[in-house]
Amino acid sequence: MPLLALLATLVLQSPAPVSAPAASPRTIAYRAAKVLTCERHGPGFLDHALVLVKDGRVEKVLPARDATVPSGYQIVDLGARWIMPGMIDLHSHLGGSSGDINDMVLQLNTGLRVSSTVVPRNPALQRILEAGVTTVLFIPGSGTNISGAGILLKTSPSRFEEMKVRDPGSLKIAQGDNPTRWAYGMGRGMMNYHIRGELARGMHYAKERAADPARERDPRFDVFEDLAAKRTQVSTHTQLYQLVMQSLRIIRGEFGIDVYIDHGEWKGYLATEQALALGVATISGPREIDVPGGHGLDTDGRIVGIAGEYQKRGMELVGFNTDAPVVPGEELPLQAAVSARYGFDASELQGVKGLTIVPAIVAGIEKRVGSLEPGKDADFLVLDGDPLDPRTRIEQVFVEGARVFDQRAR
Asked: Most CB atoms within 10 A, among 80, 270, 396, 407?
């Protein structure tokens, strides 16, 4: 048989996934060759499994061989395809229409909120949605020391109220080179001074408001009521060992505020022992490697994987981000793949969990997203192989049980 004819025959014989109808029924059972459940503890996957979805939530995941699908469920057989939770990017600037929100009038923009700039269904969000990123933390830029509050968003809905997962999503604090470029050439000592002073004022305000709700509201410090009550965290743009160390010491050590390391490059991983003692996790990116001579670093001539270095020092909660558009948001899984190439142990789904359940835990939204467990939002992807393999294609995306992307419909 001629080669082209043979290839055509093979393509025609390959099983194609059966997708749910556009107007999905409220109860569906999805059958797949592999389901990456991504719960924090446990194997995190099932081979030849069923995912039962009811009213936009995961009802259960169970082995297909012994399962009896309840009556009333439509069965969708995805053949050899895989299912995994939607991915979460905790550092993105793609929620609005103009990239970074850098209102660089003052060094301390604590009262700024990017929520007012969200543009539902903007092309940048649509692009990362098609790449499987279903939740993002949309945050202001790092042009100033404290740049304001971000918002956690679903990437698919067309209405702001439906997109919002939590507002404020975090308070963005920036340490490093970016704020030092502002106005009078601020150095590292003054950055620490600014952060310590603003946190002291903000936490004092939150304490007074908790004791006396009639106390006059100050919009500048609103976010501190959420920080003090552990309803949100500080996402800290910090790198270099000295800056990471000071960020952890001030934010978590002195004020007890929940915080996670964002960036963490340029040997920031040397602060891992301190981070572990303070209960602080790492969301690695946008750089995933330290290179010889980069930023004046001595790496013994080696390319060093940053996430792998945190992991080797005992950090279990290691996630990944893109700082999109610094790294294109659709390349979030590539961040984990690069890390695996340079020393990060992904042999037990640590890489996939770093795209799903780890950022959910770090952001405090793990009861809703990040894994395929009963009661959570049915945000999941249908793909044709390992998500850390750059050749893998995402074929369908579901958010809260509704199919929001289908590759064949392009």
From this structure: 396
